[in-house]
Amino acid sequence: MADQKFETNRRRLMALAYRMLGSHADAEDAVQDVWLRWRNQDHDAIRDATGWLVRVCSNVCLDVLKSARRQRENYVGQWLPEPWLPPEQPIAEQNLMERDGLGQAYLLMLERLAPVERIALVLHEVFDWVHDDIAPVIERTPNNTRQILFRARRKMQREDERDATPEPEGKACERAQIEAFVAALGQGDVNQLVSQLAPDVIMHSDGGGKASSALNPVYGADKVARFFVGVWRKSDPTVRVFQLSLAHENWLITQADGVIDTAVCATSRDGKLIDVFVHRNPDKLALFEPLLTQAEELGGTSIKAG
Questions:
Q1: What is the full DSSP assignment across the chain?
Q2: Neighbours of 214 (CB within 10 A)
Q3: How far, in Å, CA of 53 to CA of 6, rounded?
């Protein structure tokens, strides 16, 4: 019975830990740690198993975040969270926990927060916990918890005020927008590409020191368009391009010599791309390998570059 209770909550804990840590491996380690602690408990004395597991998982993630922040200070270039790729499509009752707050934009914005702020915000906005329940997890009073959440929401607003709305993340880029993006790239048409980008678009790129990438964010439609066209012109003309549509994001995947070398997704505002995320770190791209073989099942489409 104890094992069954834990397994019932495993997906919830994994989704929680991933939001906190932005890494599948770190999230899996955190959930395993929770499991070891759960095994040593008097389960008859725990009235709310789900609440207990979420609290313990939050505390484990809090400890990991403190060390992860130091590690990311030494990361080569900009660090981006790994793409959220669940092993299977979420069932209806788990749709919220495995869809909301999982996009690249939201997770990157969470990096602005102190560990305690991050824990409080995710528990409140994604898992719908009230202040009184969050307070003991972060070892604060309910009133202090309200103040922490207020500060966290302020930090989550874009620092450059490009988007003053309180929405946790921009609208995911549509499939048609990605197809138009690829068509413009294939033609090497900078002006056409610029027309698809918001004037204040930002491109975020993560190579982790293991693949070439822009070390700093690239700002502005013209610079972002010229960056992509310049890179595309240098690419192998036989490169294969795929589109993978997941529950929460659409991804542009390029493959050279049978190996995935780039994954791109974006968020949009008023039909224009406002944030573009480029993954080139091979450690993170490896997550896409098993999914690419199932591209048609996931609704992916192979697109020939021009």
A1: -HHHHHHHHHHHHHHHHHHHHS-HHHHHHHHHHHHHHHHTS-GGG-S-HHHHHHHHHHHHHHHHHHHHHHHHHTSSS---PPP---SSPPPGGGTTTTTTT-SHHHHHHHTTS-HHHHHHHHHHHTS---HHHHHHHHT--HHHHHHHHHHHHHHHS-TT-S--S--SSPEEPPHHHHHHHHHHHHHT-HHHHHTTEEEEEEEEEE-TTTS---SS-EESHHHHHHHHHHHHHHS-TT-EEEEEE-SS-EEEEEEETTEEEEEEEEEEETTEEEEEEEE--HHHHGGGHHHHTTTTTTT-EEEE--
A2: 19
A3: 8
Q: How far apart are CA 276 and CA 221, in angstroms?
A: 11
| pTM for the full predicted model | 0.82
Which position has the higher pLDDT, 290 or 131?
A: 131
**For residue 45, how many other CB atoms are within 10 A of its CB?**
7
- Cα(35)–Cα(33) distance, integer angstroms: 5
At 271-288, the pLDDT tens digits run 899 999 999 999 999 988
Cα distance between residue 128 and residue 124, in whole Å: 5
Q: What is the pLDDT of residue 168?
A: 41
Could you tell me if 206 and 280 are in contact, meaning their C-beta atoms sit under 8 angstroms apart? yes
Handedness of CA 219, 223, 227, 229 (dihedral sign): positive
- Asked if pLDDT for residue 154 goes beyond 60, the answer is yes
Q: Could you report the per-residue pLDDT of 22-41, keeping only the tens digit for each?
A: 899 999 999 999 999 999 89
Do 43 and 247 meet the contact criterion of CB atoms below 8 Å apart? no
Considering only CA atoms, which of 14, 9, 38 is closest in space to residue 26? 14
Q: What is the mean pLDDT of residues 101-130?
A: 88
